[in-house]
Amino acid sequence: MQFLVDTHTHTISSGHAYSTVLENAQAASQKGLALFCVTDHAPTMPGAPHFWHFANQRVLPRFLHGVGILRGVEANLINIDGDIDLDPRITDQLDWVIASLHEPVFRPVDKETHTQALLNLIASGRIHAIGHLGNPNFDFDFEAVITAAMKHNVLIEINNSSLCGSRQGSELRCEDIAAFVKEVGGRITTGSDAHFADDVGNFTHVRHLLKQVNFPTERVVTHHPKCFLDFLQERGQHGIAEFSVF
Predict the structure, then answer these.
(1) Which of 11, 55, 125, 238 has its C-alpha lying 20 to 30 A from 88's C-alpha?
(2) Which of left, alpha, beta for 140 (phi over 0: left; psi -120 to 50: alpha)?
(3) Are 199 and 19 in contact (CB under 8 A)?
(4) pLDDT tens readout for residues 21-79
(5) What's the per-residue H, E or C state across the chain?
(6) Residue pLDDT, tens place only, 184-193
(7) Which Pfam families match (predicted)?
(8) In the chain, domain spans
(9) How many CA atoms lie within 13 A of 162 on its CB side?
(10) Best CATH choice for the domain 5-245 from the list 3.30.565.10, 3.90.1300.10, 2.60.120.260, 3.20.20.140
(11) Over the chain, what is the mean pLDDT?
């Protein structure tokens, strides 16, 4: 299975990543990607940039090293009400919004609390995808959350970093999540979660997992740039003129 879009990458602005946008773009080009999303951590994550970093992404060119750049964020789910840590005036200007649960921001509680927080997040209409749900520290009701995500056209991310040690114990949970998304007819996105340029476009473990569950290629929005851009337009995003080449 081929992936031409990476929807989850970090730069030095995240505080614990080590490459620049330019370096990530060069790596994306070398990997043969068509598009990648810049998704630095939102402000409540320790070491993350000020909200101006996200408000000013309009200065990023649409292409670097021949690869299309989408302006985004990995926001933090901050409470059971489903709120995220970036003002709508900023997220509404971005192309792509992932939200994730991170231990330094949302202390793990119990399955019921995590589930309710995720359901409220999905219903808020403010995000395009939920990141690295396989983290065993944040157990949740798979059926309730994945069914709600499908209803609200929110993608479930399969995160390559989770499958190679960054969140211990994620592997089997990610496989179960992918299998359930397949069963209910949902769609997924794939993110490298790169914190260093060499990992941009690295989907080695994701590819193996999706093969294991025989996940349909057409329901992976990152398999082709047009598929990904069509999803964004389904969600009401304005078309990006520079990407008409896709």
Answers:
(1) 11
(2) beta
(3) no
(4) 999 999 999 999 999 999 999 999 999 999 999 999 999 999 999 999 999 999 999 99
(5) CCCCEEEEECCHHHCCCCCCHHHHHHHHHHCCCCEEEECCECCCCCCCCCHHHHHCHHHCCCEECCEEEEEEEEEEECCCCCCECCCHHHHCCCCEEEEECCCCCCCCCCHHHHHHHHHHHHHCCCCCEECCCCCHHHCCCHHHHHHHHHHCCCEEEEECHHHHCCCCCHHHHHHHHHHHHHHHCCCEEEECCECCHHHCCCCHHHHHHHHHCCCCHHHEHHHCHHHHHHHHHHCCCCCCHHHHHC
(6) 999 999 999 9
(7) PHP
(8) 5-245
(9) 26
(10) 3.20.20.140
(11) 97
Q: Which two tokens stand for residue 204?
A: 């080695």
